[in-house]
Fold these 3 entries.
Entry 1:
Amino acid sequence: MSRFAQRRRKLRAELKRQGITAMLVTDELNVTYLSGFSGDSSYLLVLPKNTIIISDFRYISEIQSDCPDIDSVIRPSVESMVEASRKLITKAKVPSVALEGNSLSLGQAEALAEALPSVNLVTTSSVIEKLREIKDKGEIQSIRNAVKAAQKAFEVIKASLTAEQTEKEIAFNLEHQIRQFGGRGTSFDPIVAVGPQAALPHAQPGEQRIGDDNFCLFDWGADYDRYLSDITRTIVTGKLTAKFEKVYNTVLQAQLKAIKAIKPGAIMSKVDAAARNHIANAGYGKYFGHSLGHGIGTFIHEFPRLASNQHVPLEPGMVVTVEPGIYLPGWGGVRIEDDVLVTKDGHEVLTSVPKKLEDAIVEL
């Protein structure tokens, strides 16, 4: 049985547990997760005994090569996805169908409900996303490859930095290098934030030159075979000040405490607290306002979440980011982020970009 068939079996078991007969999968990432299909603009109808992908003429070849073990329906260009779905659901004679509430629009859901008055349409949330929390060996290897591509790209960028380079230029070069090392592109638009800009957790690269201040924050990741990595480092490009040293070491120690707490059964909120309490005890509590981390996979922010309101345990196979930060308006910010795999007996840090303070010092 293929890994995609195994995933569909797990989904069917969850649907049965909830008393639902079938599911119309409309989120493109979830369609790929369950079928291996590499295209877009397609739905997946998961029935008790079989699975049907609903697509169009453009993807006939991809369907045959990507997912030969499932049935397919190629809708004519004049037929909407809703109408194609209605026909298949009617033909299947199923009493209930789960819909992805986070993906299907209200208009599409209403159109299906109107067209299928005898079918119980159940709006669900995150059913497949929860299954995606636990990565299999193939997924973990793809994330490892995404980490490697991102790290190699950063090594090139770091070694070639000049004072005249702008945030935008460096961000562009990061993506180019990721592709050079086998990535499909970046996981997200890279963040390159010089000095005060680093006080913005999601700063947009601009025309600020890296030599215009004493430090710069880099947040980047690679897309490798549709799986993603997410790394942050803050480097010193000018004078190393006592303030920067204090902030940096506070963030680093907070991150190390949180990583140490990661193991199967560890409560996510307590992992978050390990870092948050350290930062608060150092006097910077109000300057760390986001959650500690998130899951990564085919989407850059997915389940699980390392946050103060997540009172559930970590499980083997989860891959999470650990990214505490301190952001001081008008001065700048420091964030350090690694990707961490929860193993059977503890954890493995997948990223290996050096992060001691002495490693962060770069001469331009």
Note: The chain has a mean pLDDT of 97.
Entry 2:
Amino acid sequence: MERRLIKQNIYNRFPEDLRKLTEHFDSREKDIVLLSSLDVLSNCLPNFYGIYDGDIMYPHLYLMVIAPAASGKGVMNYSRLLIEPIHDRIFSESKSAYLKCEKKRKKNDTEQCPDVKVKILPANISSAEMHSFLDSSEHGLLIMESEADTMSNMLKNDWSNYSDVLRKAFHHEPVSISRKTEKVFVDIKEPKLSMVISGTPDQLKPLIKSRENGLFSRFMIYNFDEITDFKDVFAAKTRNNKAVFEAVGQDVFNLYGELAKLEKPIEFCFTDQQKEKFLKIIRPIRTDIVNNHSQAFISNLHRHGLILFRIAMILTVLRNKESVITDEKLYCSDNDFLVASQLMKTLLRHCQFTFNSIETGDLSIQDEKILDDLKSTFTRQEAINIGVKYNIPARTIDDKLAQWKKRKYIFKHSRGKYKKRM
């Protein structure tokens, strides 16, 4: 069943850099390039923060793309080019400093050498290494993994289960680690981490097996099940994809350098009117979830409020990148607030579909009501008609039919007809 695409009129409203990055892609690939680029860019904006629910928040995002093999999700790797110049500079400079120190250390054993630093972190590391790299990082790290089972496998082991770090870093909550045998104690006050993960539903099962463990609710989810046709790999529009990302990546590198040098961080703010609109968007959705869906989904909604805020932060910097370093406060434009709001609503729909896909054995209150109202054998149109009674759009009913069929609450009885399992 098709999950919603991001509408073209939203793409038309993006800052110029995001329009450049996405213009040569279509359909699902276009959406994946956009979301992965936003996520990578969230880790390229040092000294930029906002106040959300009384706490300092930075732009860092988590993204999970769930789709079958051969579905085009690999285009997310283009977005890595946006941060590679920053990673390469940080890594080469810190490695050079470390090697110089090591030479001196041969003459003086008491010499303390600096850590080698990175910007891009692999998923296949130990928990101790995760803490160490976060501790040495000044402005955050990016985990980018196109095979989600790499991370899933890490989280199965005692020595590499850094799930608690991922959960805490999303809100920049302090994390620490102590190793008595190694005489190691690391205490990170404000961890900053972004993640871009993709994989098939089976690869992600170990990672999102529990929708109540808190990690799932921290992700922007993009979930679809269409398999793409074999595209024209020689098309003219594919020739310059890498060059476009490298060019924007150089601009991002320059912006990162300017922001990193700031003595006083820049504060991002909503206007008073936008704050009111934000509450008018979130509160009705919350009421609907409480009344008609699983209340376990509320934590996902609450964190999508923060995701909306962070997306607006990123858009605002990109929109004002020429003058951003001269501002002490940067206010969101109404256009960027609208774009962030629409993106959040689309992502929340993908998140809810995925949430409902995770097996629990339970049906939401709303699902139980609809199934009770349906005859033992029914058509899609009859289900849609029942949905009207509960103010549920047809596309949501289609999602529910797909989920009920998958979870064996209903099955295809004949052409165009479903039957409830008794």
Note: The chain has 15 helices and 14 strands.
Entry 3:
Amino acid sequence: MNLQDEFQLSFMTWNLYMGAELPSLFTEISDSIPNIVSNVYRQFLATNYPVRVKAIAREIALKKPDLIGLQEAVKWQLTIPNYRTVTYDFINILINELRKKGLNYEIAAQNQNTSVELPDANGNLIQLLDRDVILVRNVNRLNIRSKEETNFKVNLAIRAARQKLEIIRGWCSVDVLLNGNVFRLINTHLDTNSDIQIQQAKEIMEGPANTILPLILVGDLNSNANRYETPTYKQLIEFGFHDVWKGIGKDSGVTCCQGPDLINAESSLNSRIDFILFKNGWKPTAVEVVGEKHQDRTATGLWPSDHAGVSAKLLFRGNKY
């Protein structure tokens, strides 16, 4: 192999945190839902994504990853009847913040997951759309040859307000052309329910990860690999994925989770569930957790997210296809 067949690429994965916890909505008492919706939206406002995003963009600007996988890249909307709709689009807000720092990222792929629309206690309508997204920098160098955006066939079923609902999750992927060489990046956010999670990981292994292409899998897998290997993580490793952190990471590499209001005095990260995994011809050279230190917090004391991000550099050993 010639030296010109090796390229260094940088990746990042980060769960942005939608800004509020939703389990309280999953109640059988439909009359209580408007009050719960109002409380959830108030929590979202208090965790202040427009302020947090500046801290997130600062970390991204320090690393300048070529490709980023984001989870909980949501869109909130408050519809005030006969007046206006207020929108918080996490993706667009982040891209605009990065542009202020001289970094031009574009959406390479995104999948749309759970979408809910519920009334609050004040006569308004609250809408929430969950998404996973891949951002790319320097499209002149990295040519997105193809993409896939889809939802899992197996999702968690719950009951809310006497109705059966699905918590829809999914994945997106891009095939990237670099100097005549192609690699694939997959981004996902697996369910917290271990049985569902295992099935979703299996769909990835049988789908986009079933390839001989050089492969990167990033995301919030909700499978702890800090002190022991939980089943989903274990099956991905047995499938042939390698964990960047296992090879060259320092310390525990924990990434989850800060308190839901993001103002806990000391970091409460205690599990490693956010990963950059690789397969088929990569060589990792650097990896670190980002957004986990006190100096990474906002001026108002908020942690950037309830998750820390993971940033890594890998050598891409090109094979022309």
Note: The radius of gyration is 20 Å.
